[in-house]
Amino acid sequence: MPELPDVELYRRYLDATSLHQPFDHVEVEALRVLEDTTPQALGRRLKGHRLEDTRRHGKYLFATLDSGGALVLHFGMTGRLEYSRKAHDPPRHTACLFHFGNGGQLAYVAPRKLGHVALTDSPAHFIEDRALGPDALEIDWDTFRAAAGKRRGGVKSWLMDQQRIAGIGNVYSDEILFQAGIHPKQAVRDLDDDELRDLHRAIREVLTAAIEAKADPEHMPPGFLLPHRGEGGRCPRCRTGVKKIRASGRTAWYCPACQPL
DNA sequence: AGGACGCCCTGTTCGC
DNA sequence: TGCGAACAGGGCGTCC
Q1: pLDDT digits (tens, 9 = 90+) for A167-204
Q2: CA–CA gap between residue A160 and residue A261 (Å, rounded)
Q3: Alpha carbons within 13 A on the beta-carbon side of A234
Q4: Cβ of A77 near strand C (distance < 7 A)
Q5: Catalytic annotation, pick one of A50, A59, A164, A185
Q6: Roughly what angle, to the nearest 10 degrees, separates helices A141-149 and A193-212?
Q7: Which helix (H) or strand (E) holds A6?
Q8: Catalytic pick from A3, A8, A29, A175?
Q9: Which pLDDT score is estimated for A198?
């Protein structure tokens, strides 16, 4: 699930529930999700300290610590956060359970264990190490156009390349391309300035609307492909049946009439 | 360089 | 109803 809009909502959720309270201890249920750290090191680093602030870059969520550095959360395909004011049985598939001194608990839930929990000295270093591109909601037109200029290959895989633009995944890349009227396999180098403008605008519009809709397909604006993205779905604009193809190893849905190649 | 593919996991859905 | 296969919204490594 978690692409930029979902992670932004998790960020706000963490803000609303988990800031400014000292940690007590951490229970790691799935070692696999820890990246470059251990349950002991994580516990030592957090105990007695508080999360001061949050920041998101692409699909990564950073929560800065009062002692310096930050907790890093990445959600893979199925991760989410669940806070409870009182300690009780954590949700099924809790991979990491953060206990606060006031009795509250924050569960990092990851059914497929594909996400990661890490520590970093600074979000900026982390982003640099990963060579992540600019955040999809921050990228300006000049940077966007310059990035497109050098790219060979298809537009969908380019949008999903986190080292080019950070935050766009499979589902929202389909929506962005639909809103821009561009076929997923269109070569980036063949896009003219008008099309690139449309694309750049669609990125912002789609992601912003998705956040406002709480990333719930049922609450997307009319005219969004997302609720119709699947077998038997019809284009919300022209009623043509939506089509499925493989692109970069993932399933792309699009309207063959509105997004010709 | 970019794309296809396999893999990491587990839950759900679909076809027989 | 039961069971295996295919698939799911991420990302990494390998091969071509």
Answers
A1: 999 999 999 999 999 999 999 999 999 999 999 999 99
A2: 19
A3: 5
A4: yes
A5: A59
A6: 120
A7: helix A4-18
A8: A3
A9: 96
